[in-house]
């Protein structure tokens, strides 16, 4: 599809040093329980006149890292805090040579495997283990042999998803009359009770296990990622830096799954149950056992023969408003390891991964075909 050549690799450090009293950024227990990895995505842009130059983008990244200083640090080996040592972000520059214009490539559709070639690190090296950078960025210029190049920016999000202000500050300079994005808040750890109990040598959040899955499926469990910011009273600000998300689960029998209205009703009810009182339990107690208790109760109700589907939505993250000086992106692609039975909504598309047999039925579903334009 294209020939990729990496032209440079470097580390971008914050434009100003992090003050000593901010050197340690404590993680809340949700941060500790979330699987430690990057969330890779690629934004594709056309190349308009007057677009930012790469040196300008580097300067913007350096300036932004001084504000979002944990993103330039390192995760400690026990995953309890971030050492804000100004190590910096990993930046890769590359050129992709292709025989087709970028707009045509996007129109045809790109798979996860194609998107992965534009990431600044492989799936294994993108893990946020101690010593690895929390933020990695690759800027790839597409060189169509018959036309001027078009850029793509492929940041892999850090352990703690950055609020919209990060993307806004990386964009073109704002005029004085324009509203400035809010400064990030780094007090997530103070909002949650700190429980670091262990079961043997494993953290408590790793000790809870679901039931073993069997081949014959008689019930379906849906696990949905919910943003907890809007569930609080008063609502937590969007600028709050950290994993303010949680998974909820609901189960339906095979008969109920065939009644789509019943399935939608149970999913909607489960999300609404994350109310102010439940959020208080999560923040004032060790919320992981509460969450696993709910999953086990559902498992006991439906028995051993159930399959799990994961749902998440990135529609409110503002990716299609991320102007890094190239205007707004024309498309967003998701990379990384492929997870079975995963549905990710990006606003314009739904990225769905299923077993081959299930995917064949999914692609032939008449109701789905009525709302889709193409498959990758």
UniProtKB/TrEMBL annotation:
It comes from Asparagus officinalis (Garden asparagus). This is Uncharacterized protein. InterPro entries: CAT-like_dom_sf (IPR023213). Pfam families: Transferase. Residues 145-182 are annotated as: Disordered. GO terms for molecular function: acyltransferase activity. Residues 149-158 have a biased composition (Low complexity). PANTHER family: F21J9.9 (PTHR31623:SF17). Belongs to the plant acyltransferase family. Keywords: Acyltransferase, Transferase. Coiled coil: none annotated.
């Amino acid at each position: 599809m294209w020939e990729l050549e990496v032209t440079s690799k470097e580390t971008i450090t914050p434009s100003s040093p992090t003050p000593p009293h901010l050197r340690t950024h404590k993680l809340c227990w949700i941060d500790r329980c979330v699987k430690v990895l990057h969330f890779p995505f690629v934004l594709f842009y056309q190349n308009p006149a007057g677009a930012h130059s790469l040196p300008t983008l580097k300067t913007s990244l350096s300036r932004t890292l001084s504000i979002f200083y944990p993103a330039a640090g390192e995760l400690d080996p026990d995953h309890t805090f971030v050492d804000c040592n100004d190590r910096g972000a990993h930046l890769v520059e590359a050129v992709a040579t292709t025989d087709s214009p970028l707009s045509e490539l996007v129109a045809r559709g790109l798979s996860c495997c194609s998107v992965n070639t534009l990431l600044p690190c492989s799936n294994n090296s993108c893990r946020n283990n101690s010593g690895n950078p929390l933020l990695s960025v690759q800027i790839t210029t597409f060189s169509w042999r018959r036309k001027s190049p078009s850029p793509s920016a492929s940041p892999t999000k850090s352990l703690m998803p950055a609020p919209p202000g990060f993307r806004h500050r990386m964009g073109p300079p704002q005029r004085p009359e324009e509203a400035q994005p809010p400064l990030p808040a780094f007090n997530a750890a103070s909002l949650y009770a700190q429980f670091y109990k262990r079961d043997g040598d494993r953290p408590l959040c790793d000790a809870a296990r679901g039931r073993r899955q069997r081949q014959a499926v008689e019930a379906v469990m849906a696990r949905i990622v919910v943003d907890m910011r809007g569930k609080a009273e008063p609502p937590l600000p969007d600028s709050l830096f950290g994993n303010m998300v949680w998974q909820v689960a609901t189960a339906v029998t095979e008969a109920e799954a065939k009644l789509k209205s019943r399935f939608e009703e149970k999913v909607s009810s489960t999300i609404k149950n994350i109310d102010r009182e439940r959020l208080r339990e999560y923040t004032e107690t060790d919320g992981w056992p509460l969450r696993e208790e709910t999953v086990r109760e559902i498992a006991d109700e439906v028995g051993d023969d159930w399959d799990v589907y994961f749902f998440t939505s990135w529609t409110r993250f503002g990716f299609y408003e991320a102007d890094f000086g190239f205007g707004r992106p024309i498309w967003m692609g998701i990379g990384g390891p492929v997870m079975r039975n995963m549905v990710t909504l990006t606003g314009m598309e739904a990225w769905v991964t299923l077993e081959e047999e299930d995917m064949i039925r999914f692609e032939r579903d008449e109701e789905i075909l009525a709302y889709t334009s193409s498959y990758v």
